[in-house]
Amino acid sequence: MAALLVIFAVNVAVILLFQHTWAATYSVGSTGEQVRVIQDKLQRWGYYDGSVDGVYGSATEAAVRYFQRSNGLTEDGVVGAATLKALGMSDSASNGAAALDNSTALLARVISAEARGEPYEGQVAVGAVILNRVEHPSFPATIAGVVFQPGAFSCMDDGQIDEEVTESAIRAAREALNGSDPTGGAIYYFNPGTATSSWIWSRPLLTVIGSHRFCA
What are phi and psi of 215, to 5 degrees? Predict the structure, then answer.
């Protein structure tokens, strides 16, 4: 009987441990790419006017409370499962891009949004451009810095960044991070059918993959 009680207690402890491990919760003191995504969403939706810096401080907490209050959620300033769902984000680290480390997940999310429908090589190429910018002195030195640079990617403005991440985008992100670069060092890309900037046409063309022109 004692042995059974011990086994039961261990099983309960394991269950609780896994629940704690997989439950994604963000509050004051949290940092990282997911916090940046939360801040960016709140900012774009008019709840937050602070810096998108990946640091969950008092201003972010106030914005979260404002969002929760406005959307019928428990106003506790903590981004837990219900608030994540309302923000259109996964509440489980076991699903999709959330199972990846923060940088890979963010890269995959942008690839999915920017290169949806493009050939797989084109998806890897978009990831490579982001990573090439990280290494370039004219751009921020982190994936998050490049992605959240104002005006850098249209998906950040039109809401496509919030769409479900495709499996191919996750694979493409990993391949790009492993050093694959089908562009030959491009730091820009654009779709000539939708581009509205005349300046982008002045960039030296390196290659064309799918619908995108990749430029130096």
Answer: -130, 160
More confident residue, 31 or 138: 138
Q: What are 124's two structure tokens?
A: 């890897």
- Distance in angstroms (rounded) separating the CA atoms of residues 201 and 194: 12
> For residue 203, which of 185, 188, 183 has the smallest C-alpha distance?
188
CB atoms near residue 131 (< 10 Å): 20
Is the pLDDT score of 161 beyond 90? no
pLDDT tens digits for range 21-35: 334 688 888 877 788
Q: Is the pLDDT of residue 103 over 50?
A: yes
Which contacts of 40-47 are long-range, i.e. CB under 8 A and separated by 24 or more positions? 40/148, 40/156, 40/161, 41/87, 41/88, 41/89, 41/162, 42/67, 42/87, 44/156, 44/157, 44/159
Given a contact cutoff of 8 angstroms between Cβ atoms, the answer to whether 81 and 23 are in contact is yes
Beta bridge partners of 205: 215
Name the pTM for this structure: 0.60
Coil vs helix vs strand at 205: strand
Which of 94-103, 113-122, 147-156 is modeled with the greatest confidence? 113-122
Sheet holding 205-209, edge to edge: 188-190, 212-215, 205-209
Q: How far apart are CA 203 and CA 152, in angstroms?
A: 15
Q: Percentage helix, strand, coil, to 5, in the chain?
A: 50, 10, 40
